[in-house]
Design brief:
This is VOC family protein. InterPro entries: Glyas_Bleomycin-R_OHBP_Dase, Glyoxalase_6, VOC_core. Pfam families: Glyoxalase_6 (PF18029). It is built from two helices and 13 strands; from the N terminus they run E-E-E-E-H-E-E-E-E-E-H-E-E-E-E. It is α/β, with parallel strands linked by helices. The chain has two domains: 56 residues, 2-Layer Sandwich (Signal recognition particle alu RNA binding heterodimer, srp9/1), CATH 3.30.720; 55 residues, 2,3-Dihydroxybiphenyl 1,2-Dioxygenase, domain 1 (Roll), CATH 3.10.180.10. The strands form four sheets. Strands 9, 10, 11, 12 and 13 form a five-stranded mixed sheet that branches. Strands 4-8-6-5 form a four-stranded mixed sheet, covered by helices on one side. The protein has a two-stranded parallel ribbon with strand order 1-7. A hairpin with a 2-residue loop joins strand 2 and strand 3. The longest helix has 12 residues. The termini are far apart.
Length: 129
């Protein structure tokens, strides 16, 4: 694994925290989806995932017994040049497709999916330039 270069914001470091019910299952899912590696050992509550090249935003998985209720107010967007292939890939890893038909807006085309805990995320194809 490369030296760690954290994702900064103007007053410190940025990390994305995802609430999950099963750390191991979620770590396996998100590390495969994002191509991230586990960083250090897991505790009973937290497990950190970082980009394999060491550069970028940490994804911190946080175990909770709370059930997800309603739509996420914050979610990840996975932007890809091949929507169909990426949706198929993440579904094969355990994601559930939420939208039957792709959503199209301002040239962007996307599907909403959910991780094994029901957390929504989007797979998007940018407009053709």
């Amino acid at each position: 694994m490369a030296d760690r270069e954290v994702q900064r914001y103007s007053h410190g470091e940025l990390a994305i925290v995802v609430d999950v019910s099963d750390l191991e299952r979620s770590a396996e899912f998100w590390s495969q989806v994002l191509g991230y590696d586990r960083a250090g050992g897991a505790s009973a509550t937290y497990l950190s995932l970082i980009p394999g090249d060491g550069r970028g935003c940490e994804v911190l998985l946080q175990r909770t017994d709370d059930r997800k209720a309603g739509k996420n107010r914050l979610h990840l967007d996975l932007r890809t040049p091949d929507l169909s292939a990426e949706v198929s890939r993440v579904r094969a890893l355990g994601a559930t497709q939420v939208t039957e038909e792709p959503i199209v807006e301002f040239g962007w085309v996307w599907h909403v999916l959910a991780d094994p805990d029901g957390n929504e995320f989007c797979v998007l194809q940018p407009p053709v330039r």
